[in-house]
Each structure stands twice: as C-alpha cells, then as structure tokens.
Design brief:
Structural class: alpha/beta
Radius of gyration: 21 Å
Order of helices and strands: EHHHHHHHHHEEEHHHHHHHH
Strand order of the largest sheet: 1-2-4-3
Helix content: 55-70%
Number of strands: 4
Shape: globular
Distance between the termini: 46 Å
Number of helices: 17
C-alpha cells in the first residue's frame, strides 16, 4: 500500500460517461439545476446523438429508468477487463449481453479516435489533479477514523457525464473517486480542476471516506447498533437528504473530515470558506458541531480514551447534541 492517490484516465469510465451523453441523463441533471458543462461533454453528446437507439444506450436508459444508481453502474464497468469488457461479477440488474453491446458501441462510434482528438483536455485535467494530490496523504489522514486501509485510492477526473455529481466505487481492492470539475454559476463553463483545490479534496474525502466508513461500520455492527438506537440531532432538511441514521452519520463524518483536512493540511481560511459555502448552498447548519465532535474523538484517541472510532461511536449522538446546543447559544 502506498500513501498516495493515483490519478488516472480510465477508458471504462469514459465509455460509460459517453454512453450517458446519449440517454436522458443530460436533460435530467439540467432539470435538477441548470449549469454549464465542459466543452468535451457537450461535443461528445453532439457527436453521439444519432446512436440513441443503439442497444447499449437502450439498456442503459432502461437501467436508469429502473433507478439503478450511477455508482453501481460505474462500479460494474470498472470491474470489467479492458477492452474486451469481460470478467467480473454479473449483478442481477445487468443484462448478460450488455458488455457485448458496450464493446460494439465503443467500436461503432469511433470513441477511440474521438478520445485521441480530445486528449489534450483529458491530459490537462489529469495533470491538474495529480499536482493537487501530489502531497496528499489520505491513507494516513483517514486511518484514525476507519482503521488500516489496504486499498489503492484512485481518482478519475471526469470531463463527460455526470457533470454535477461525484461518485465512489469499491472494486477489487481499489477505491475509485470519479469527479467532474466544479460547476460554475449559470451557463459559465466549469472551473478548471486546479482553480478550486477544496472541490477535489471534498470529493475525494467524501467518496473514499464513505466507502471506507461504511465497510468499517459493517465490521463493527454492535457499536453501530448501540449508536443508532437514538436519533441524531439533525434538521428536517438534513434528514430529508439523508433519510437513514447510517446515511446521516456517513454524511456528517464525511463533511467533517473535509473541514478537518482543510484546517490541518490546507488553511483555516479554506476551511471557513467551505463551512460557509455548505451553509449557504445546502443549508447545512450541522457541520460546525459535527467538526467539534470529530475533533473531540481525535483528542480522546490521542489521550488513550478511545482506541478506535468504534469506541467513540455510541457517544457520537450525545456529543453532537451538546455541540449543537453550545453553538446555538
């Protein structure tokens, strides 16, 4: 295991991202919130628009209509061998013939040539992300919260679809974070990756942290069961976004880790700007209290009160209630 984040361009990811361009996904995400998209995404959609009846597209549209999450779709494709798209496990929702149709789509649309023509966009994105993660030691940072991390962390910058959503996938000892550049206001093009380091750190810590913590909670079911017996003190708006106790915990911990990382490894100014943005954009008033609770755990761990996060977990809700009360004074 190496304590670095690998940054890569993965053709399996790009194939599925291009396939999304021919489905209803681009319109769906614009209906949720209108935003400018990267020129590569727009041109990919324009180039592939006549393939909307291709079997690979029809199957993907059907899976989207059935509500199969994007993370499962990308996780499935990332386990296949490139370029034959063979091997891996076949989930129950995936038609057995889909990989064959994916290969046909890739060949018939000339995507290899298109990616070669657009290589400068992808290479620029890779270099920007790689530079920002060159000194990031996320294994070391995350281990106090999730235990030893044997996985390889891989960051895949995405210039195609989805253009407004970061995704995470765990595949055979690899944890993937798939992230577009940060969208700008209105119809402006998205920001270059290196213009907003906090966007990348947020995406990586939220996705890697969620995948690792979810696995950690499975291995500490007793502590999870004890902790979840009492509801967390969150607003109705937050509960609507994260309906289950576990989803709320994953979000609170993940967001807190972003703030702590920015405070400790970037700057207090960046951390404060991030907290303010989360409050203004998402109405997230829970974050300052959650950060103080996670800091409390780190102090207790250093002092020997807690050996690991499972020891602290049953007390998380109580400490969060106290922190919110204090901050409301």
């Amino acid at each position: 295991m190496t304590d670095t984040v690998q940054v890569a361009i993965d053709d399996r990811m790009r194939l599925l991202a291009a396939l999304l361009a021919v489905t209803s996904w681009p319109e769906d995400e614009q209906r949720r919130k209108a935003h400018g998209t990267h020129i590569h995404a727009r041109n990919t959609r324009r180039r592939l628009q006549t393939y909307d009846k291709h079997p690979a597209v029809v199957i993907l549209q059907g899976l989207l209509d059935r509500g199969v999450p994007l993370e499962e779709l990308f996780g499935y494709v990332l386990q296949l061998e490139w370029p034959a798209l063979t091997g891996g496990e076949q989930p129950t929702w995936a038609p057995p013939a889909w990989p064959r149709h994916l290969v046909a789509f890739y060949q018939e649309t000339g995507l290899a040539q298109w990616w070669q023509e657009e290589a400068h966009h992808w290479e620029e994105a890779r270099q920007q992300v790689e530079k920002l993660f060159a000194t990031a030691r996320l294994h070391t940072f995350l281990e106090p919260f999730v235990g030893p991390i044997p996985d390889t962390l891989i960051f895949l910058p995405n210039l195609c679809y989805p253009t407004d959503t970061s995704l995470g996938a765990a595949v055979d000892g690899r944890l993937y974070c798939i992230t577009p550049p940060r969208v700008a206001v209105g119809s402006n093009p998205p920001w270059p990756f290196d213009d907003d380091p906090a966007h990348l750190y947020r995406a990586a810590l939220m996705q890697y942290g969620r995948l690792l913590l979810r696995r950690y909670l499975r291995a500490h079911a007793d502590a999870l069961s004890e902790a979840s017996a009492q509801p967390l003190p969150v607003t109705p708006a937050f509960a609507a976004l994260y309906p289950t106790w576990e989803a709320q915990l994953l979000a609170l911990v993940g967001l807190s880790l972003v703030v702590i990382y920015l405070q400790d490894c970037v700057s207090e100014q960046e951390a404060q700007a991030y907290v303010l943005m989360e409050r203004k954009v998402h109405g997230l008033t829970e974050l300052p209290g959650a950060v103080s609770v996670m800091r409390r755990y780190l102090r207790g761990r250093q002092e020997g009160t807690y050996r690991e996060f499972a020891d602290f977990l049953p007390h998380f809700g109580k400490h969060l209630r106290v922190a919110r009360t204090i901050m409301a004074l």
